[in-house]
Amino acid sequence: MEKSANATRPTRIGYLVSEFPAQTHIFFWREISALRDLGVDTVLISTRQPAQGTISHRWAESAIRDTHYLLSKNWFDWIAALFFLLRRSAGRMGSLVAALGDDEYAGARSRFNLMVCLLVASRLARFVHAHRLDHVHVGSCGRSAEIAALGSILGDFTYSLSMLGPTFSTYGRQHRLKWRHAAFGLFQSQMLVQEGRQRLGPDFPKRYAQAPVGVDTDRMDRTQPYQAWRPGDPCRLYSCGRLNPVKGHEDVIDAVCLLRARGIDARLIIGGEDERGGTGYRLDVQKHIAKCEASSFVQLLGAVSEETNRSQYEAAHVYVMGSHDEAAGAVAAMEAMAMATPVVMCRAGATAELITDGEDGLLTEPRSPAQMADAVERVLRDPALADHLRLNGRKKIQSRYSHRVSAEALHRLLDA
């Protein structure tokens, strides 16, 4: 990346995240904060504000005020973007035609969506030009990555991407356009690096780092010692993740029912909301709770703040998650491990890159409530095992999964 003409000015980048700041965006905020600590002037950009029911963090309102949203409701902004697009298209038509004609986008609907992205990309390029940004980093590889790729053609700026996973297909089928001109990439897991090489071929970035998102272990730390479960007492389980079928919340509820059938007074609290702010998959979870007659021992908290999560991790005997697919940087699991709480998760996606079964957590097969119940009961009835898992879990997060790791990797690549 070219250095700024003003050598005394710090690197100034745009940081683009869709629908920022939603409930799961704490790891973006940690990475942004760490970048700023490293001296990178970071300007927040997003597509639009998230659904109201998914805004949960203390810092969210401040972040909203500081974020530039590309999907403006002001018609003047769109007219200005159209004129910018027409003016900048001259001399770039070959690159634009090649991008819009990419065979990954075969089909009228895909072409139309890409044309819409082009207009939004002109808003991004205009913003980058007006605010003298050196570079744009995109926090994930969905539609925002297409916007950045097209915007870079119009705006002559460099951009980079973070691939969060669990797999490339999480973000659709079209990836070559997104990555073809990326200056570099960050990959959350080794599994994603390998998939990227296979899927992207020559479009795989020449410069990249494997750098999972992480946890601020200074903030995620116990204020009270862990209390092992005692037979006859209520068993407190916590699970956290957006309400989405892939997170396996219904399997966790079924596992709790099995534990109760075994005479363990298991009680489950679930933190997280669906992408529609409570009017989507949450309704299916509520139906499942009613079907299992579990309303007296399963509670849905909705979108939760970092502070609420911390208190729930600290109170829980076991953190449990039933994901059918998961990235190595399963943030809530990292947070639970950082809080020295025993973790039970499914062996799905790249979870095994985060958790070593039997050393710093227990792994079960996805969609197997019985295995999950067995693993939770094993932790409950063996306090020595609980201590072994939770203490090793915190050590691993401290040594390998600090929130500064990805920020430092991004900083090094920006400086290269």
What does it look like?
The structure is a single chain. The longest helix is centred in the first third of the chain and has 23 residues, at 108-130. The chain has two domains: 12-214 and 402-415, Glycogen Phosphorylase B (Rossmann fold, 3-Layer(aba) Sandwich); 235-400, Rossmann fold, CATH 3.40.50. The protein has a seven-stranded parallel sheet with strand order 3-2-1-4-5-6-7, with helices on both faces. The protein has a six-stranded parallel sheet with strand order 10-9-8-11-12-13, with helices on both faces. It has helices at 26-37, 60-66, 75-89, 93-100, 108-130, 143-155, 176-180, 190-200, 249-261, 282-291, 306-315, 331-338, 351-354, 369-380, 383-400, 404-415, and strands spanning 12-17, 41-46, 67-69, 135-138, 158-163, 184-187, 208-210, 235-240, 266-271, 298-302, 318-320, 343-346, 362-364. With 416 residues, it is α/β, with parallel strands linked by helices. Helix 12 links the parallel strand 11 and strand 12 (343-346). The chain contains 16 helices and 13 strands. The protein is elongated. The chain is 44% helix and 14% strand.
Please give the share of residues in helix: 40-55%
Structural classification = alpha/beta
Q: What is the CATH class name of the largest domain?
A: Alpha Beta
- Radius of gyration, Cα only, in angstroms? 22 Å
- Biggest sheet record: 7 strands, parallel
Question: What is the beta-strand fraction?
Answer: 5-15%
Tell me what the CATH architecture of the largest domain is.
3-Layer(aba) Sandwich
Number of helical stretches of at least 4 residues: 16
Low-confidence stretches: 1-8
- What CATH calls the topology of the largest domain is Rossmann fold
How many domains is the backbone divided into?
Answer: 2
What's the SSE pattern? EHEHEHHHEHEHEHEEHEHEHEHEHEHHH
End-to-end C-alpha gap: 7 Å
DSSP E strands, number: 13
In order across it, which strands form the biggest sheet? 3-2-1-4-5-6-7
CATH superfamily of the largest domain, called what?
A: Glycogen Phosphorylase B
User: What would the principal axes of the Cα set say about the shape?
Assistant: elongated
Average of the residue pLDDT scores: 93
